[in-house]
Amino acid sequence: MLAERRGGANVGGSKRSRVRATLLVTAAAACGLFFSQAMAQSYAFSNVVVEGNQLIDPATVVKVAGIAQGETVSDAALNDAVQRLTASGLFATVELVPSGSTLVIKVTENPTINVISFEGNKRLKDEDLEKVVKSESRRVYSAAQAEADAAAITEAYTQAGRLAARVEPRIINRGSNRVDLVFEIREGRVTEIERLSFTGNRAYSDRRLRQVLETKQAGLLRNIIQRDTYVADRIEFDKQLLTDFYRSRGYIDFQILSVAREFSRERDAFFLTFNVREGLQYKFNRITTVSEYEGVDAAAYADVVRIRSGATYSPVSIDTTISRMEAIALRQGINFMNIEPRITRNERNQTLDVTFALTKGPRVFVERIDIEGNATTLDRVIRRQFKTVEGDPFNPRAIREGAERTRALGYFETADVEARPGTAADQVIVDVNVEEKPTGSLTFGASYSVSDGVGFRIGLSEDNFLGRGQFVSLNLAAGADTRDSSFTFVEPALLGRDLKFRFTGFYSTSENDNSFYSTKRVGMSPSLEFPVSELGRFEVRYKISDDKVYKVSANSSSLLKADEARGSELTSALGYGYRYDTRIGGIDPNRSFSLRFDQDFAGVGGDIQSITSTGLATYQMKAFREEITLRAELEGGAVVTQGGDSRVIDRFSGNGKVRGFEPNGYGPRDLTVPNQDALGGNFFAAARVEAEFPLGLPEEYGITGGLFADIGSVWGLDNTLGGAIDDSMSLRSSIGVSVFWDTVLGPLRFNFSKALQKEDFDQEQNFDLTVSTQF
């Protein structure tokens, strides 16, 4: 403790006054009190002595105290020195004792931490907890820091869903002023979400809304699934997901009034209830475009509006339209245009009138873009996600879109983008702060199907190769009758443009896949892909491969034997592909359409001359308050040869095109030989429709049902052995039911099917189970 000394002040005089004695005594007492407070003792020390220190240098103690020799200090200054020494965390006790012209600083040092250990932890490993604590070995022990570390460990367990976790810091004296710091942990049980419910929802059921949230109810796999544990931060994310869900469906006044969190009596489960106010659903009515920018005609901007009157309101539709208009302004060289959507409500009929006003915004330029936090990723990989560069007019929307593209790369844990004032009034600086995460992966996979049996796969991939944003992967797969290996390299921005370069090398073999022959293919394929429209992409490619058919059974068709006799042949082909997918725009969350068309022209050298064309169109929609998902697919293909017969390795087998049949189970077949080989066909077509719906089970089980109906055919051969082989277009059709089980081990699908139309020689498959998972 600080030893204090007080000086007094004498009040009196040699002459006595004739006033009354009581007044004299009172005045003397008052004056004495005043002067004793006003004239507190001050010190000037010519020497400072430190006592009790063992490891800490005396000069360090004096420096922390902040008292210099010869400096005049007061009682308050001595008290401040005590506080500084205590706050340093180096000492258990501190006492300042003035002794004449010498100041004695008496300290008791805190012990040094010898070892930090954790006891009782099973769910969180030592290496994970070491990242949380701030105390360090061979540093001075601080009781306050140990308590803070215990709180940090408790918070780590809270984030892992164990709210009942308790952590106590203990010290073990090891002598020589050293201690071991031990954190005794009682992990407690996982705090699960036992029930997840909603109040105030009328448009969508609890079941549908639970599908939106990241948090899930505890189900059958409660010991494996991680999203059914209670994490407070995840609730805030769920609130945003729920808000986005409703507003994208026209409920512009949607609100989450509250989230009730009820802890179970056993303290091992939460009951969450989202109290919502849906409001009314609005639709678009009248859409207009006006120009308030002098010299700018609104007609060209009105032409890019794709919003239909009567369509459900969606913020994505507004944003997409603004982006299209900004692209026109960029092409016309018009800067600082601000496109303002002015929305007028018509509450009587629940519609919205939208006017896109072209106005002139402030003249603000981007001074520079600062990127921080990227230790591995090159600056240019992040910078190319922004269409804006230094010196361009500042467009807040373009900056936000660049931020979203940066996050979508998948290279970063966080990617925060903010704009701040620059060095001049008309300048802004864009700060991009990222936190990198591992982008490489080693995966082991397994699959199973009734027809192919068990298969295994191992893959090594890197999504951000050398920090350049390039993708590299090596995959090896083996099934009961197949072997596949491939190498892939992708440069997503060749020459700094939206031009994707892909190179693939492959080697594959198959043996007796419901047939009596084997195949081998080895080759490579480089390609370039680029956008041709907002939702469409185009690819040009070259493919070269060495292919052969071998090990043909003696009891097989003469067509297969002819393919074997040809030996290895080189296929050299130029091709192109077009992809159109409305999911890229994401305007309508309940409907999507995709189209794929490919053509490959073999004959650019090599031994094969043919044209192979394939196409696939898919439409999907959610109906009945989004409870039921409807899908429809139309697929077809053709191989046209020149100067020779097609090979079985190039023809279509129809595998998976019409359910209810085995692989190679339908299509042209040589019935004149004992093996009755399936030969495939030069043409195929198939149509499939499917409905997926809930079965009434708790949705946390991840089990839904489905109905499907397929129709299609495989037909056409260049050589029918004089008409001995029936290669006509005979339709096959089937119906069936499906059970989908979305497990953490992988999606399972059980198909029970029945062929309605078939040929006598077709091979049916009434049940199929597919499993796919990776670790």
TrEMBL record:
Keywords: Cell outer membrane, Membrane, Repeat, Signal, Transmembrane, Transmembrane beta strand. It is found in: Cell outer membrane; Membrane. It holds the Pfam family POTRA. The keyword Ubl conjugation does not apply. Residues 43-110, 111-188, 364-437 form the POTRA domain. It comes from the Bacteria. Residues 1-40 form the signal peptide. Part of the outer membrane protein assembly complex, which is involved in assembly and insertion of beta-barrel proteins into the outer membrane. Belongs to the BamA family. Part of the Bam complex. HAMAP family: OM_assembly_BamA (MF_01430). This is Outer membrane protein assembly factor BamA. It comes from Defluviimonas salinarum.
